[in-house]
Amino acid sequence: MRALFLNGSLKRSNRPSRLQDEATPVLELLEERGVHVTTIRLADWTIPIGTGRNCGRGDQYPEIEERILLSNLVIFGTPVATGVGT
User: Fold this and answer.
1) Domains of the chain: total
2) For residue 34, is it within any domain?
3) Rg of the Cα trace of the chain?
4) b vs e for 58-69, b when ≥16 Cβ sit within 10 Å of the residue's Cβ?
5) Residue 65 in contact with residue 45, Cβ under 8 Å?
6) Helices and strands (DSSP H and E) totals, the chain
7) Does 2 have pLDDT greater than 60?
8) 63 located within any domain
9) What does the pLDDT look like over 19-41, one tens digit per residue?
10) Within 13 Å and on the Cβ side, how many CA atoms surround 76?
11) Which of 32, 55, 68, 83 supports an S-S bond with 50, CB 3.0-4.6 Å?
């Protein structure tokens, strides 16, 4: 079984993410049960605003879409704004 975690943090991978910290125990639990888990930090990818599946040169969404379609489970992680700086 394959799981894909889409990390919607606004921070790139070179910065700590509270969202990733919160997701890690769940992802580790899945791995302990034999699930192959892949994480994509969306801030690291070029995903232009648009409504099409491929919005032109440099659009990396088609590659992400391919990984989504190959997964049995997709987990969306989104940041929560509380009005307090992090």
Assistant:
1) 1
2) yes
3) 14
4) ebebeebeeeee
5) no
6) 2, 3
7) yes
8) yes
9) 999 999 999 999 999 999 999 99
10) 4
11) 55
- DSSP 8-state assignment for residue 42: G
- The answer to whether residue 86 sits within a structural domain is no
Q: Write down the pLDDT at residue 69.
A: 97
Give pTM, 2 decimals. Answer: 0.85
Residues 6+ apart with CB under 8 A from 13: 41, 43, 44
Residues pairing with 3 in the sheet: 37, 73
Higher-pLDDT residue of 68 and 10 is 68
Full residue range of the structural domain in which residue 8 is found: 2-77
For 13, the token pair is 């991978």
What is the C-alpha separation between 42 and 28, in angstroms, rounded? Answer: 20
